[in-house]
Amino acid sequence: MSSIAGKTAVVTGAARGIGKAICKKLAELKCNIAVVDVLAEDTEKTAAELSELGISAKPYQCDVSDYSAVQELFKKINDDFGKIEIVVNNAGITRDNLIIKMSEEEWDKVIAINLKGVFNCTKAATRPLMKNRWGRIINISSVIGVMGNAGQLNYAASKAGIIGMTKSTAKELAARNITCNAIAPGFIKTAMTDKLPETEKQKLENLIPLKRLGEPEDIANAVGFLASEEASYITGQVLIVDGGMVM
Ligand code: NAP
Known about the structure:
Layout: E1 8-12, H1 17-28, E2 32-37, H2 40-51, E3 57-61, H3 67-81, E4 86-89, H4 104-132, E5 135-140, H5 143-147, H6 153-173, E6 178-185, H7 191-194, H8 198-207, H9 216-227, E7 238-241
Parallel strand pairs: 1-2, 1-4, 2-3, 4-5, 5-6, 6-7
């Protein structure tokens, strides 16, 4: 693989789970990393762990749903690192409920973080990425955005919206040598899926041809590839990483 060593990556929702695994993968590839999350303490801990891998990693506490805060955040990261080249929009939450019971607040919160958060970060990153004439935007969607799920109408809408945004961003920025792709994870072992009862996890494993839930590293490996030079002719795509569950 040609090297992306020395590139600056911004990863949101990076303190733990899939985001943290993505940071570790990009650190292995010798990228410098802006670790962004709402959780101050965990963000600092993750950035400190990454720094031990011999790259520059800095923690930034920010809520991706806050438009002004995100614009300031990207200015600060650009000043601190001198450039921004890779953006991984990973921050996301669930507030599950059946439509009949779903509150306006549950709808608004999920759309604000999962969907508007991606808009806020992509908009803030566009100018620095265009300046480089090289860039990678990788949006973490979900198989739920592709197939829908009872009890996750808000989450499915946000993740399907990310796919539309990914394709539009890809078309707008391609002329500047910036690619934008989405990854749609299946069920991955993190705090988000820890909430599922054991019987539900068993049922899911039976549905997955590879017979296991995914590891955060399975998603991180796909990010590593899409960020690489080898993926330079891939844009506007949705890469499903789910052990074969949706095909
Ligand atoms: P996770 O363990 O809950 O990690 C998500 C991280 O994002 C947490 O540190 C969280 O902080 C942070 N975050 C939440 N709201 C934020 C905000 N407003 N601004 C900045 N950071 C925020 O979840 P995960 O399983 O790693 O999921 C990562 C991404 O993958 C999400 O977009 C998720 O939808 C997607 N995904 C996950 C799965 C899965 O099976 N796990 C499947 C498909 C897609 P808090 O802890 O404070 O909330």
